């Protein structure tokens, strides 16, 4: 079952094959968790709760999936919508504190992070400097939707076309948000630590 596409697995699940759903869960559990963790400002418990909601929604909405549509943008759309609903309903956004540049350079933070999986050399170089925690805090400062576009492209590896489907934007708009996010991140990273 490992060589089947996401779309084939989803069709099998629509037909009642629970092993196909388990395989999709294994494929997407960690990438979706990492995306939600960043989207929810590193609120680990919230990300875990929303992830569970996403897979419950996926199971309940399996009949709504159109087999000719790509699965990955569909599942990220569900995750994004649940994450944003969580932010609104729990007022997590209002409880978020502003981070000073001094805090950005504090590498002793216990915030979780992982190396960026993107193909952009700028971000690989930054991630390879053992500054993943600082990097995650800088990304967290980006405004939406630039932050979402950056996370979906550079971290999760979605194409601009897939992101356009997830965020319901024009692909050109997605590219613009990504380039602005990248420019803003490069400026922040280039600032000397004080």
Highlighted features:
11 helices, mainly alpha, Rna Polymerase Sigma Factor, Chain: A, Arc Repressor Mutant, subunit A, 2 domains, 194 residues
Number of strands: 0
User: Overall pLDDT, averaged?
Assistant: 79
- The domain count comes to 2
- What is the C-alpha radius of gyration, as a whole number of Å? 17 Å
Distance between the termini: 52 Å
Give the CATH class of the largest domain. Answer: Mainly Alpha
Provide the low-confidence segments as ranges: 92-130
Question: What shape does the CA trace take?
Answer: globular
Q: Give the biggest beta sheet.
A: none
- Reported by name, the CATH topology of the largest domain is Rna Polymerase Sigma Factor, Chain: A
CATH architecture of the largest domain: Orthogonal Bundle
**Relevant CATH superfamily of the largest domain:** RNA polymerase sigma factor, region 2, helix turn helix motif
Helix content: 55-70%
Number of helices: 11
SS-based class: mainly alpha
**Series of secondary-structure elements, N-terminal to C-terminal:** HHHHHHHHHHH
Portion in beta strands = under 5%
